[in-house]
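FIELD: query
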Amino acid sequence: LGEARAAAAAAPHDIRAQFDVADLDLAGGHVDDAFARLLDLFAELPSEERAPVRERLLELFGVVGDADPRVIRARGRLASLLF
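FIELD: result
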């Protein structure tokens, strides 16, 4: 856990490192943190590099459940970042 967080902190635009920490956050029940991490990454990446992050977010939304208020908020933020 510490190594994954350190790697993500050292490389904030490393998609794989950010995915690893988001997965750990989600598994640990820190759903909002996982979504925020990936949404922040999405916002910072050039548009041509965003697709994998959007796909991972959609996967995590499905894991948590589309009716969950945290998913609804995160979907709203993703939509605003897309447009």
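FIELD: remark
The CA atoms of residues 66 and 77 lie 14 Å apart.
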